[in-house]
Amino acid sequence: MRILHTSDWHLGKRLDDFQRIEEQISVLKEICEISEREHIDVIVVSGDLFDTYNPPVEAIDLLYRALKKLTDNGRCAVIAIAGNHDSPDRIESPDPLARECGIIFAGYPNSVIPHFELESGIKVLNSEEGFMELKIPGTNVPLRIILTPYANEYRLKVFLGAENNEEELRTLLHQRWQNLSDKYCDEKGINIMISHLFVIKKGDAVPEEPDDEKPVLHVGGSQVFYTEDIPSQIQYTALGHLHRMHCVDNSRGNVWYSGSPLSYSFAEANQQKYVLITDIEPGQKSVVRKIELTQGKKLLRKRAEGMEEALQWLGENQNSLIELTIVTKTFLTAKQRNQLNNAHSGIVAVIPEIINPEEQSGESQKQIDLSRSMKELFCDYFKSVKGQEPNSELMDLFSELLSEEEK
Ligand SMILES: [Mn+2]
């Protein structure tokens, strides 16, 4: 059985003012082409399908079109779960229609996939909370899938009946996975897991999460799970959440993040993007291959020594999105900014790095002392912007605002 694993599409995501939808259309088309060429049996999208709970219309349109295309008229099963950026209810809402095409959505860790059968041969053989067993056309071997879409700590605790700390949550989730595996996952079938969680191999360094993730995931403590919590019957674990493609652990079953199909922040600058293809036979170790994606724009970070170098480099790196640091003696003039923007249409940010030894030792380098009072800080700020002390009328107004804030 051949499985294509992708995740973190973040449809509708922008980079500052830059739309990425055209790139998303192209890269999903590329994934469809890879799927056809490789004769894929099952496609897995491991969460963060959309970038927000209320995605724009063109993102919704793109998701359904792309998933429908990937099913190849119901021949190929497509399984997509919710990530922390997705609204679980929104993900599941088109489910009855989607199932008719061979698309299966799971929004919650306790979602139950209803029994159904398609003319193409896709059939749900078994189903309970967080688990399903599928018949896939063209093979007699059943596919067992443990499904754990993203749940925040609170929801996960309620779902698992956990009360206390992270350690307990981890143990309970492990027990749940193990019980499902012991019940369904023997060597007569193929056993995989699909999840949108932060998973590391115990003892490994904790990788950086995507730029936008930290506030979401770390409310009330970090939820890190370990590959040792994954039951030994599971031959492949298709993870979503981290945007860099990598193997988390291949000591027993293979555990991989496919990563996102596009670089979505400058923390991912210069990353090559992939989809993963896994061949699995019953009772055997899975074999994983990566296939490069070529359609997205590269995100590039560049530090240029002056305007001349910047303009030349911009000319040489056209089809990309750029964060440009420019070493300069003064602040950039409006004219210089125009020159840069005329040289390249994908400049996301220009950061002037001012080198001026005389000024550096002076006023501009002064540290802000946050232990001082709000009024003193305001005075300083006003002086630095206006070049004079605020008058008493303004200070009275400021005091009034402060006292209202305190109330
Ligand atoms: Mn995520």
Model description:
Helix 1 packs parallel to helix 2 (57-70) and helix 8 runs parallel beside helix 9. Strand 4, helix 2 and strand 5 form a beta-alpha-beta unit. The chain is globular. The protein is α/β, with parallel strands linked by helices and 407 residues long. The protein is built from twelve helices and 20 strands. It folds into two domains: 2-293, 4-Layer Sandwich (Purple Acid Phosphatase, chain A, domain 2), CATH 3.60.21.10; 298-406, no CATH class. The chain starts with a strand and ends with a helix. The structure holds manganese (II) ion. Manganese (II) ion (MN) is lined by residues 48, 83-85, 213, 241.
Helices, by number, come to 12
Helix amount, in percent? Answer: 25-40%
Radius of gyration: 26 Å
Number of strands: 20
Biggest pleated sheet: 7 strands, mixed
Terminal-residue CA separation: 65 Å
Give the CA-based shape: globular
How many structural domains in the coordinates? 2
| Derived structural class | alpha/beta
Tell me the strand percentage band.
15-25%
Give the mean pLDDT: 90
Arrangement of strands in the largest sheet: 7-8-9-10-13-15-14
Poorly predicted runs of 5 or more residues: 215-221, 361-365
CATH architecture of the largest domain: 4-Layer Sandwich
CATH superfamily of the largest domain: Metallo-dependent phosphatases
Distinct ligands: manganese (II) ion
CATH topology of the largest domain: Purple Acid Phosphatase, chain A, domain 2
Reading off the top of the CATH hierarchy, the class of the largest domain is best stated as: Alpha Beta
